[in-house]
Structure formats: C-alpha cells, structure tokens
Amino acid sequence: MFLVVIFSALSEKFPDGGGPYQYTINAYGSNVGLVIGIIHLMGILIQNGAIAYALSLNLQELIGMSSMYIPIVIAGCVNSFSFGTSASIAVILSVLKIIPILIFTLLGVVYIDPSVCFTVPTTLTPVSAVFGSVLMIIYAFAGIEFGLIANTKEVHEPATTIPRALWLGTILGALIFILTQAIVWSVTSPDSNTALADAAYQIIMKISGNAQYGLLAKQILISSGILFTLNALNTSILITGHFLSAMAVNNHLPQDLQITQSVRLPMFCASILSMMVTFLLFDGLDGYQSLFRITLEASNLMMAIAFFATALAYGRLVSRGIMYKCGITSSALLLVVGFYSILLS
Length: 345
Known about the structure:
The chain has one domain (2-344): Amino acid/polyamine transporter I, CATH 1.20.1740.10. 77% of the residues lie in helices and 0% in strands. It has helices at 2-13, 19-28, 30-63, 70-79, 83-108, 114-117, 126-141, 158-187, 195-208, 211-249, 264-281, 289-317, 322-344. The radius of gyration is 20 Å and the shape is globular. The protein starts with a helix and ends with a helix.
C-alpha cells in the first residue's frame, strides 16, 4: 500500500508515463535509468512468457490444444490499432472474467475453513512458507506500476483517475485474491493447474449434488481463467510496447519505436521480444515446475529492484517524509524476499 501511494504521487507529478524507468531518469540521470529500465523490461518480458504459459495450460485443459505464441501475436495485433481499442477490449475481458469469479467467491465463502488456511504444509518450514507466500503475492500484484508506463495524458484526468484506480484496484484485487485462495485451500488441493476450477466443481457439487452442474461450473471457471490470462497478456504487451516507446523517447532505443511515430512497430517488437523470451524460458517446461518457479522468482526480483528504485526516486523528487521511509522499507523487504527465494531454490 505504501508503494501505491508512491506510484500515485509520482504519476501526478510526471504524467508523461515511463513508470520506474522514467522516474529513475528524472531523479538520477539517464545512465542509472537505463540500467533500471533494462532490469524492469526483462521482468515484464518474463512475466509475458509466464502469462502465455499459464494461458496454454488453461487452453489445454478446456479444448485439448494449446499454444503460447498465438495469444502473444493476437495481443500484439490488437494493440497495434490504438490505445483506446486496447483499453476497450481490456474492459470487456475484465467484466467477462470477473463475473464468474465473484459468483464463485459469494458461493464459496461459506466453505472457508480457517484451520486449513492457516496450516503450514509439512514439507515447508514456517519461514519458507511465509517467503513462498510473499513471492506469489508479489507476482499477483506486481502489475500496479504497469499502468504508469503508458503516456498517462491519454487518460481522462490522470491526476485523480490513476491514483483512484491504483487504490481501488489494489484493495479490491487483494480482497478477491485472499477470498479465492482461502476457498481453494479449504475445498481442494491448491497444487493443481486448475485449482480454482476444481474448487468450483466441489462447491457446486456440495450445493446441487449434480455432477453435470459441477463440470459446467469447472468449465466456466477455466474459461474465466483463459479470459483472465488473455486480458493480462493483452495489457502486458501494450505496456511492453509503451515501455519500448519510452526508451526511444530517451534515446535509449531508435526513434522509430516512439508511439508518436507508429503504434504498430513498438507493438510488433514487443510481441517478438515476448515470444523470444517465452521460447527461451518456457518452451518444453512441462514437468519442470521447479524451473518455472525459479523463473518467476527471477522476474519478481527484477520487479522488486524497480520498486526500490522508484521509492528512491520518490525521496529525491517528491518528499523524504514518512511515506518515503515506509516505501523504502517495504521495497527493501521485497528485495530480501526475492534474493532469499532464489537462494532457497
């Protein structure tokens, strides 16, 4: 939450976009900003690959066929039209994906078993369990800075809209995340690739006693998961393209990659880079979940570095008050968690 305040303040002060990369340039100069930009961009590209991998698992479960690359190409094509087109599609996908999850949460909240939710697996020490949980939370909420990379002048009244969206999105997202995870832990095994859908099957079976309804609920939740990951991939490709544009504006990449020159070229490059990283890190990963986890840990560490740089930039550009100290402490803890998680692996 402290980082949300910091990102909100910086977005008001610098509405031209660029996120942590641009804030670091404004605070510490071009060279330092370039280093943070490369680290953050690599984290985003790895997350693009992770999202595409997760999407392929859901497609395999639902229709028996999957591809990590076709969704990336589709997202790149969609984002090649305009920011407004991409935003409209994101809104539609968000509504379609959130309705089944909200219904699942309302029906499943009565089945939450606190004794199960607060039990540490016997294979983990309490410290490892805490660090592992923090790792997944970082991954779930690492996107709070993504919306600030695009040029916020394209947003209506960004000084009020963006901070409000950051606050509401984080709070509501955290609430839904906690409730759905608690329900999954209470009614089924969380280790499944389709744990949420499996939990929906169990809940509908408890309510109706009809296996057909349970299977229908499972398919709906798998479809919701596909929409969820497709929307995340669409947004992430959009942000990757804008990130490349921001680097071009700062003369760290060719000027042709600026969004003002052409929307299609940066989005095309974003898709190509994402597919390259996906191929290198995630292709043929089935059966090697430990490698998938390490890859996510590396991505989260890169995000934590970008968060820490943003907190430092806030201190130089805005204030060194209590919020700065809390932000530095929070981001430093994220760095410690990131390093420790990789060492454990």
